[in-house]
């Protein structure tokens, strides 16, 4: 445990400190939910307003060529690629994470005829599991989705495996898989690997190329701050791109969209992962939001994230002697993403009370209170204050109110 003065000193010495001013953080708010919805980068509001009034308003249909709207999936994809160790031409921004997963999972299954197992873990994000279940039902190819405990994934990889489909960081606990090692094992077994990077991209250094990943997907609205419902991204390794047969074969992924050919011919390369018309305004918001990464060393982001997490855990464990509160995240920073979670009795009400007092995290059923650590705009004093507010909420039972126990649709 440290004093608040010591936390303030850590902030003064923080090389990422100036980045905070790039974001709109409402007064009296400590925002520990950037892993769910990143905040608004200040300059995006004007960029978006200009896109609406000047680009859409004045250029009208000409905007597709004049303002590069048509190429946005590629240009934004390449910018995201820099954050995840993917070379230009291997990533596009498009659709949602769930939809991109449909694209790559169907593509991967087609590349592994004769193999029938999709392996995932039971901590995976439900939408990812639903997508696999839906594909299995729709295509009736006799596939099986096998979900095992995260620690058991490695020994379940065998020669029956078609696709290893995992999320690198568990959305509830923050537990982080060893991506490179699992990919190597999947490849030795002759399988393909798909990674969901929703809680990785923008959270810490990712190197898809070094890790030898085949496919990856991830969110644009979490650590990438692209705004509610921002486009997601999808990566396909260069050697596989021209072997992918798109199942969501739309005109924007056609080799010649404006030939209006009645027969589908996939575009060369990553463009075949496009389906329909991109949401241009959302794409512009995400593109503009990515400016905050200019000059940022992802290793510095990781280092600060680890230090924030260590401080948060030690302050909370040192001060909140509540028997209903236990660390749900791995204690070893190497096994954690950029969030800290606790099992917490009355967790939903506790989180509502925290939010009412300006500390915004979120709740994940059945009993997890979750805090995203986003080093570009969170400091050590924030973490100190948040830990102290949690202590107050628990010790003074500030959560014990009927209105904090009534669940809203989004938790
Ligand atoms: C947030 C999240 C998603 C969300 O998918 P959408 O299709 O964008 O709603 C998918 N997978 C993981 C692992 C997530 O954390």
Q: How many strand elements?
A: 15
Bound molecules: pyridoxal-5'-phosphate
Oligomer: single chain
Structural class: alpha/beta
The geometry reads as globular
Average pLDDT level: 97
Q: Evaluate the radius of gyration.
A: 22 Å
Distance between the termini: 30 Å
Q: Please count the helical segments.
A: 14
Which residues form runs of ≥5 with pLDDT under 50?
none
Helical residue percent band: 25-40%
Strand arrangement, major sheet: 4-10-9-8-7-5-6
The percentage of residues in β strands lies in: 5-15%
| SSE string | HEEEHHHEHEHEHEHEHEEHHHEEHEEEH
Largest sheet: 7 strands, mixed
Give a concise summary.
Helix content is 36%, strand content 15%.
Task: Describe the fold and architecture.
- There is one protein chain.
- The chain is 36% helix and 15% strand.
- With 411 residues, the protein is an alpha/beta fold.
- The protein has a seven-stranded mixed sheet, with helices on both faces. Strands 11-12-15-14 form a four-stranded antiparallel sheet, with helices on one face.
- Strand 14 (362-364) and strand 15 form a beta hairpin.
- The longest helix has 22 residues, at 298-319.
- The model has no long low-confidence stretch (mean pLDDT 97).
- Bound molecules: pyridoxal-5'-phosphate.
- The site of pyridoxal-5'-phosphate (PLP) has 13 residues, from helix 5 and helix 6.
């Amino acid at each position: 445990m440290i004093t608040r003065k010591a936390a303030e000193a850590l902030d003064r010495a923080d090389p990422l400190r100036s980045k905070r001013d790039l974001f709109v953080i409402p007064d009296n708010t400590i925002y520990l939910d950037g892993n769910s919805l990143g905040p608004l980068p200040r300059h995006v509001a004007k960029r978006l307003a200009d896109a609406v009034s000047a680009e859409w308003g004045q250029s009208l249909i000409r905007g597709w060529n004049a303002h590069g709207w048509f190429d946005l999936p590629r240009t934004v994809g390449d910018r995201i690629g820099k954050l995840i160790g993917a070379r230009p031409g291997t990533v596009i921004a498009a659709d949602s994470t769930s939809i991109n997963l449909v694209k790559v999972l169907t593509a991967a299954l087609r590349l592994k005829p004769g193999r029938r197992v999709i392996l995932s873990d039971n901590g995976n994000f439900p939408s990812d599991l639903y997508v696999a279940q839906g594909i299995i039902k729709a295509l009736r190819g006799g596939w099986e989705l096998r979900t095992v405990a995260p620690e058991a994934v490695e020994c379940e990889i065998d020669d029956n495996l078609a696709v290893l489909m995992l999320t690198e960081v568990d959305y509830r606990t923050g537990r982080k898989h060893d991506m490179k090692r699992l990919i190597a094992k999947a490849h030795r077994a002759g399988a393909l690997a798909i990674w969901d990077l929703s809680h990785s991209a923008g959270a810490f250094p990712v190197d898809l190329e070094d890790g030898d990943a085949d496919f990856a997907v991830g969110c644009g609205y979490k650590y990438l701050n692209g705004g509610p419902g921002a486009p997601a991204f999808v990566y396909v390794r260069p050697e596989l791109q021209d072997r992918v047969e798109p199942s969501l074969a739309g005109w924007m992924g056609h080799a010649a969209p404006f030939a209006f050919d009645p027969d589908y011919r996939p575009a060369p390369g990553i463009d075949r992962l496009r389906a329909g018309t991109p949401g241009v305004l959302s794409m512009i918001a995400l593109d503009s939001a990515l400016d905050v990464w200019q000059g940022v060393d992802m290793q510095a982001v990781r280092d600060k994230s680890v230090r924030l997490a260590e401080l948060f855990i030690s302050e909370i464990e040192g001060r909140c002697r509540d028997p209903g509160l236990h660390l749900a995240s791995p204690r070893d920073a190497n096994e954690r993403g950029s969030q800290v979670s606790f099992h917490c009795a009355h967790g939903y009400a506790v989180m509502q009370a925290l939010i009412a007092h300006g500390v915004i995290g979120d709740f994940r059923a059945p009993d997890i209170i979750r805090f995203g650590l986003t080093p570009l705009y969170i400091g050590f004093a924030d973490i100190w204050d948040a830990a102290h507010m949690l202590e107050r909420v628990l010790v003074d039972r500030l959560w014990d109110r009927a209105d904090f126990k009534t669940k809203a649709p989004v938790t």
